[in-house]
Request: fold
Amino acid sequence: MLNFGREFIYCIVNLLIRNTSCLVHTEKSFKKIYEGRDMSTLNTLNNGYILILEGRIAEFGTETRERIQEIRNQFREIAVEDANGGMVFPSWVDSHTHIVFAGSREQEFVDRIKGLSYMEIFHRGGGILNSVKRLRSTPEDELFHTAWNRLDEMIRMGTGAVEIKSGYGLDTESELKMLRVIRRIREKAPIPVKATFLGAHAVPEEFSDNREGYIRFLTGELIPEIGKQQLAEYCDVFCEKGYFTDDDSRRILRAASGHGMIPKVHAEQLSHSGGIRAGVDCGAISVDHLEYANEEDIRLLKNTGCIPTLLPGAQFFLGLQHPPARKMLEAGLPLALATDYNPGSSPAGNMSLAVSLACILYKMTPEEAIIAATTNAAAAIGLSEEYGSICVGKVANLFITRPVPSYAFLPYSFGTILIHKIILKGSVYSGFAS
Ligand code: NIG
Ligand code: FE
Reply:
């Protein structure tokens, strides 16, 4: 019997956060997404307080002795969190992860250091198929336990909403097992969890000579079953040479749309494979990775509502070329950021690090990167009405930093842990992992 440890108790409380140096990413009125030049302005409020009632932001403003006293008089039992001069941010939103997996792949990491490429490792039966082998033989409870601990680690690093993909099962039994694990996580987690079906992550060994057969199995059997059981909000495809073509992607995503799933695409990661065009054609909510995106793709994405999402952890870890982030911003597109936490291309779920890498590698400004990792990432999983900024009415998922001289200090201090306290629905989070 596995011990799942202490569970997070949802106690939705009223909370007053005071003595902050700054509230970061405040909004007077809710904005669903920030595009292009709009991403360069981040609203802040110095010496702010936040009043949280029943887990939501009820009020924020500049702290005065009088207002704090009035709040204390009005809400006699209110808990008070002294930020000790730290800054308050909305929690990060991690809109692209693969945190349900078994084992690890550091041997492939070493192989890549010695000169093999990600694709060469895959063609030797490693990569995604290595994780598939391990996941198929791992019991559901164990998968739940390890993913649950990863989620705890991510929350402690400031993540307050998350998307999780399947895609290491690639047969009915194992994909359903993964999606049930995600559902279980969603039911118990203190943050919102969105599920994505990624049956088209790779062609499994049993279909290695029959990709068409695998696509028919996905569209004719597995997708209808997942739709029936309502196990996933999204369907994703790895559109890449050696995995799935743009036409395969369209077939799979259209089938999934017909069963209530919203398309997403792993697009233009290792080569230009037409994933962006396929995503736009199928009404994808996001296209992710984008290292090989070109001018035509940027033009295609304009005014579609499809959110380009960059995953700097994976790009950095695999040593890929940079996605054209500045060109996308100049073209007026929105950008989102996520970790891509997975055992092969990004074994890290640290959103603060993703924000730093976006600034350092892609020349995104701290303002752009913070908005990309909050409101825009929330929009990429349909959550920006409730999460992703300090705005009256939104759920109070926030983090408080140690005292820092400016918000740019966060991406600047890359790899340093500056997050001091996590607030979820107005409760101080103290962890749930065993
Ligand atoms: O997002 N690119 C495809 N899928 C993952 C990697 C998965 C793996 O290597 O296990 C990604 O990078
Ligand atoms: Fe991914």
Notes: The chain has two domains: 2-90+389-428, 92-379. The first helix runs from residue 65 to 74. Residues 92-379 form a domain with the TIM Barrel fold (CATH 3.20.20.140). The pocket of fe (iii) ion (ligand 2) is lined by residues 96, 98, 266, 340, 342 (CB under 6 Å).
